[in-house]
């Protein structure tokens, strides 16, 4: 069974259910795979071999009694380091939280544990989820399994790379402006940002509270649906959590996988293409649109005129919220403490700790946010950004009055070389041009693989957006695209990825 | 470094004071404002904490419904409008005892606004007058932790180290802010004090707070400014923080009037700043500079959804309001049969609730008033504490009176019982037992003492035999002296008359 790690999570769950494989075997296989390739990929910041095997044993116990805790009981998972895990380090990619072991579980973590999923470890990310390349991790970048010299996307590059490199069948990501979807696109994997409030944020180390949303990172749309159903649903500890029941996502996948999209109205967002979008990305996108039409969908062009201001609004709202969220890292209660020479005051200790503990991108955004919220500037920056946010929401409302879903390329480019955009933050920020509007409006989005770009042979993602609470539409359309493309390719897109060299 | 101070009378001749009060009320909800931790006073440090009130990464707040109700009830009792829709906001600043380095509060969208409280104050002619104090807003927020600076100074500067207790962090607070109160002239300090006293009375009647100033359940900041007399202007204000007794509110206001007048007399400007009140020396000293540009970078709390109390909810709460303070005072005065003067003194001494509770515990109203305004007021004054902060309960006072009425003790012994209770020796019965204070009404012992007194004062005895009963007083005095005051005087009299009659 050397190919266990190549199976989808759903396939793994089936083998567990029939008893053909044990969760311990499965978990061991992934731990071995991590040992073999993670030296090159660096998707993980922390691997919990002991805890994962122990959870796998407990899963096997339940499975042998025919009492699985969930449809994914025993299937291992990787968790982005921004989600707190009791007893497991949670650094959010930052030096300031190095060695911090939370005394509590996030609701997502609780639900994973309750569902019986062994947690393999914590995945790498841009510090506090600020970035689109995972290069802003304080612990070194993650490498794209398709080309180790390239970025895996960000901020959730670790989760996407772990799944793409078969180190884990499933992972949890978080998406504030594209941190699940863009890494999904550039690593040839599936990533879903659910409707804002659909998955509890309790225990998610906040970047920007009004934009953050946790979601599934997987290799197939069905796996994403299985995971989404497990982690979704109301949580009284998160006031912004939706009270609706989780939609029937797995059912939507089964409906979509038949490949028939008759009656579906699809809108192509005029503003999310053209200048700044790589030709290979546009070519794959055009093909996907054709595919949707062939499957019976009615495709029209829609305009969302305020999307062009979305990036600017986002880079005022996000730093504002982040500057306040990150104030708590002051060396008084937990995390790094740097004590300057002499007889320092508490303020001196705070200053020295924050200076040493935060990276440049974090400091940049704290400064931006502090400025934007300052008295005399608030109306011109934060206030204005909130107005743009409302206009973006109205663009979505108008568009969804015409169509059922919107589509665009997930990211304007394929994975770029490591180091390429580090000295040019604006160009880095532009990576999220197509994904940010969904966060501003709280609508759900998915990125599914749509082929590789002709010019560089690297993955391209198709983004599908749906109205709030209509996450099931993402799964229906995503599953259809996936089925039709895999039929064309004769297998999953990741089969086209180069084999990683295995460390001995 | 001590400031020049003009006499109060001189200051008022030349300047008109305007004051405002910001009062923080700690609610007595079961749990904290945004988490399920217990809201209780006096627990071991850092035992009533959780990820949320410690501000651990990833934690999130959830609003305490009871706290919202209390806030609305306070608002309604203060004749405020209740917002249809309001939000929490983050007030950003760094301080070691503030776990998130922002305080979750309300900014431009308070839950209650535009109200008033009619305050009764003694007028110079001996009567009382009503001053309407307008309420600008009442909003919800969370408390911070408590810092203990260890070292000789007791202040953060120069401390050897500091300890922080986060048990208090996240306890629900309602901040009640008045509009500027002008035109009260020489009464300003008294009105300020009466406002806080009567606000506390209202809070107690609402049952939303323990309202103990000595435990910091109610904390007041006094804003005060002066303008040239008759100018109708508004001067630069100072904010004296954490003035935590009624008496201090009045003293601090008086002090600031004198200090600011002296500054203005010198032709200088009052510096806008926060000031610290020193209970021991009775002065305020400069804190940090405060300006309107103090930048807390407020913005709406994104982890909490807006609060939109339905009108049904508000109306339901309206039915739970206690009797309005003025009507309540009128009713109590009638029930107790107090004269206007007695009532005014009771209210003025901040003893209304104490008397009410003492009466509820079984004491006659006049007796309750006598103890609180007499003996106990004197003790409070001696120790410079609030009447309500004395370590004696209304039930204790009622018990002392009951012991007097039962002739177990007399008035003189009752004072000693109060001494014992105040010294922490236990409840009145325990003090009586431990100190052996009960009067002797055992006829054997009394009879012997009476015989002894008659033998020692034959001439007095003769007078009584002749029918001059007034002379009995001298014998009673002699018996009391020999029994060290612990004799039942009425019984002694009876025995004397029996023996000599």
Can you walk me through this structure?
The complex is a heterodimer of chains A (504) and B (501). In chain A, 40% of the residues lie in helices and 11% in strands. Chain A has 16 helices and eleven strands. An eleven-stranded mixed sheet of chain A has the order 1-3-2-4-6-5-10-11-9-7-8, with helices on both faces. In chain A, strand 7, helix 9 and strand 8 form a beta-alpha-beta unit. Chain A is globular. The mean pLDDT of chain A is 97. Chain B is of the alpha+beta class. Chain B folds into three domains: 309 residues, no CATH class; 113 residues, no CATH class; 58 residues, Arc Repressor Mutant, subunit A (Orthogonal Bundle). Helices cover 38% and strands 19% of the residues of chain B. At the A-B interface, helix 10 and helix 11 of A face loops of B.
Present the secondary structure layout:
The complex is a heterodimer of chains A (504) and B (501).
Chain A: H1 9-18, H2 23-41, E1 44-47, H3 49-64, E2 77-80, H4 107-114, E3 119-123, H5 157-164, E4 170-174, H6 181-187, E5 190-193, E6 214-218, H7 221-231, H8 249-257, E7 265-269, H9 279-294, E8 298-302, H10 310-325, H11 346-357, H12 360-373, H13 379-402, E9 405-409, H14 425-429, H15 436-441, E10 445-452, E11 459-465, H16 471-489
Parallel strand pairs in A: 2-3, 2-4, 7-8, 7-9
Antiparallel strand pairs in A: 1-3, 4-6, 5-6, 5-10, 9-11, 10-11
Helix pairs in contact in A: 2-3, 7-8, 8-16, 10-12, 10-13
Chain B: H1 8-14, E1 15-26, H2 65-77, E2 81-82, E3 89-92, E4 102-105, E5 112-122, E6 128-142, E7 146-150, E8 161-165, E9 172-178, H3 188-206, E10 218-228, E11 238-243, H4 246-265, E12 273-278, E13 283-289, E14 299-300, H5 311-318, H6 325-336, H7 340-348, H8 352-360, H9 365-382, H10 394-405, H11 411-422, H12 428-435, H13 443-456, H14 458-465, H15 472-482, H16 489-500
Parallel strand pairs in B: 11-12
Antiparallel strand pairs in B: 1-9, 1-10, 2-5, 3-4, 3-14, 5-6, 6-9, 7-8, 10-11, 12-13
Helix pairs in contact in B: 1-4, 3-4, 8-9, 8-10, 10-11, 11-12, 13-15, 13-16, 15-16
């Amino acid at each position: 069974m050397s190919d266990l790690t190549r199976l989808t999570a759903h396939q793994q769950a089936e083998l567990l259910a029939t008893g053909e494989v044990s969760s311990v075997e499965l978990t061991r296989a992934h731990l071995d795979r991590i040992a073999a390739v993670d030296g090159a990929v660096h998707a993980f910041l922390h691997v919990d071999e002991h805890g994962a095997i122990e959870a796998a044993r407990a899963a096997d116990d339940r499975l042998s009694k025919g009492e699985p805790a969930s449809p994914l009981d025993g299937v291992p998972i990787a968790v982005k380091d921004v989600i707190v895990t009791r007893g497991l380090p949670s650094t959010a990619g930052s030096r300031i939280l190095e060695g911090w072991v939370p005394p509590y579980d996030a609701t997502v973590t609780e639900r994973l544990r309750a569902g019986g999923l062994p947690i393999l470890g914590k995945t790498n990310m841009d510090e506090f989820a600020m970035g689109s390349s995972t290069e802003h991790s304080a612990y070194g970048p993650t490498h794209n399994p398709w080309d180790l010299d390239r970025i895996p996307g960000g901020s959730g590059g670790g989760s996407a790379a772990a799944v793409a490199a078969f180190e884990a069948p499933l992972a949890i990501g978080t998406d504030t402006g594209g941190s699940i979807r863009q890494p999904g696109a550039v690593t040839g994997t599936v990533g879903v940002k659910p409707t804002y409030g659909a998955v509890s944020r309790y225990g998610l180390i906040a970047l920007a509270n009004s934009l953050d949303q946790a979601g599934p990172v997987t290799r197939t749309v069905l796996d994403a649906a299985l995971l989404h159903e497990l982690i979704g649903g109301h949580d009284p500890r998160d006031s912004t959590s939706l009270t609706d029941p989780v939609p029937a996502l797995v059912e939507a996948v089964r409906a979509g996988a038949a490949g028939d999209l008759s009656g579906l109205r699809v809108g192509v967002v005029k503003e999310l293409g053209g200048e700044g979008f790589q030709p290979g990305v546009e070519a794959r996108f055009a093909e996907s649109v054709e595919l949707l039409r062939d499957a019976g969908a009615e495709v029209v062009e829609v305009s969302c005129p305020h999307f062009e201001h979305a990036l600017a609004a986002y880079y005022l709202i996000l730093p504002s919220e982040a500057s306040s969220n990150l104030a708590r890292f002051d060396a008084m209660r937990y995390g790094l403490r740097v004590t300057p020479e002499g007889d320092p005051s508490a303020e001196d200790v705070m200053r020295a700790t924050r200076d040493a503990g935060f990276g440049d991108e974090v400091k940049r955004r704290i400064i931006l946010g502090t400025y934007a919220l300052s008295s005399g500037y608030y109306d011109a920056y934060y206030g204005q950004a909130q107005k743009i946010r409302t206009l973006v929401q109205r663009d979505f409302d108008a568009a969804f009055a015409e169509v059922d879903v919107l589509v665009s390329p997930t990211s304007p480019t394929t994975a770029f070389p490591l180091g390429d955009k580090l000295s040019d933050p604006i160009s880095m920020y532009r990576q999220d041009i197509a994904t940010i509007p969904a966060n501003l409006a709280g609508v759900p989005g998915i990125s599914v693989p749509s082929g590789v770009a002709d010019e560089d042979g690297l993955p391209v993602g198709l983004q599908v957006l749906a109205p709030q609470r209509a996450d099931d539409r993402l799964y229906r359309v995503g599953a259809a695209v996936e089925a039709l493309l895999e039929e064309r390719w004769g297998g999953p897109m990741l089969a086209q990825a180069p084999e990683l060299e295995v460390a001995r | 470094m001590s400031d020049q101070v003009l006499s109060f009378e001189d200051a008022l001749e030349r300047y008109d004071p305007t004051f405002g009060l910001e009062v923080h009320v700690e609610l007595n909800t079961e749990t904290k404002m945004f988490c399920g931790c217990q809201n209780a006073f006096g627990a071991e440090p850092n035992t009533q904490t959780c990820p949320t009130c410690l501000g651990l990464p990833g934690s999130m707040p959830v609003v305490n419904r009871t706290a919202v109700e209390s806030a609305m009830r306070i608002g309604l009792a203060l004749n405020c409008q209740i917002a249809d829709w309001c939000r929490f906001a983050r007030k950003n600043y760094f301080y070691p005892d503030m776990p998130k380095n922002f305080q979750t509060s309300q900014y431009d969208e308070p839950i209650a606004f535009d109200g008033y409280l009619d305050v009764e104050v003694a007028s110079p002619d001996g009567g009382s007058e009503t001053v309407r104090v307008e309420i600008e807003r009442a909003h919800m927020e969370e408390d911070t932790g408590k810092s203990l600076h260890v070292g000789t100074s007791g202040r953060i500067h120069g401390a050897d180290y500091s300890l922080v207790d986060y048990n208090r962090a996240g306890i629900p607070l309602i901040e009640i802010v008045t509009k500027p109160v002008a035109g009260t002239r020489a009464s300003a300090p008294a009105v300020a004090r009466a406002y806080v006293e009567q606000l506390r009375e209202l809070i107690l009647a609402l049952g939303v707070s323990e309202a103990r100033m000595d435990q910091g359940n109610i904390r007041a900041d006094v804003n005060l400014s002066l303008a040239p007399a008759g100018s109708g202007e508004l001067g630069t204000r100072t904010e004296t923080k954490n003035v935590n007794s009624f008496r201090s509110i009045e003293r601090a206001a008086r002090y600031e009037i004198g200090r600011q007048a002296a500054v203005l007399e010198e032709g200088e400007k009052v510096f806008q700043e926060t000031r610290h009140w020193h209970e021991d020396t009775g002065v305020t000293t400069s804190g940090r500079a405060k300006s309107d540009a103090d930048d807390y970078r407020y913005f709406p709390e994104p982890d909490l959804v807006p609060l939109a109390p339905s009108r049904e909810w508000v109306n339901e709460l309206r039915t739970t309001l206690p009797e309005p303070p003025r009507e309540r005072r009128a009713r109590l005065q009638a029930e107790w049969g107090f004269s206007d003067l007695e009532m005014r003194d009771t209210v003025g001494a901040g003893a209304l609730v104490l008397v009410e509770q003492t009466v509820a515990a079984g004491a006659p109203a006049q007796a309750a008033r006598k103890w609180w305004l007499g003996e106990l007021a004197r003790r409070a004054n001696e120790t410079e504490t609030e009447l309500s902060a004395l370590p004696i309960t209304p039930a204790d006072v009622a018990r002392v009176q009951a012991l007097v009425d039962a002739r177990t003790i007399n008035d003189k012994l009752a004072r000693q019982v109060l001494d014992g209770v105040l010294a922490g020796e236990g409840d009145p019965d325990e003090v009586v037992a431990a100190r052996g204070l009960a009067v002797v009404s055992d006829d054997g012992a009394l009879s012997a003492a009476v015989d002894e007194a008659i033998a020692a004062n034959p001439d007095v005895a003769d007078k009584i035999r002749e029918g001059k009963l007034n002379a009995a007083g001298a014998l009673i005095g002699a018996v009391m002296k020999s029994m060290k005051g612990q004799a039942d005087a009425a019984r002694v009299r009876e025995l004397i008359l029996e023996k000599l009659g």
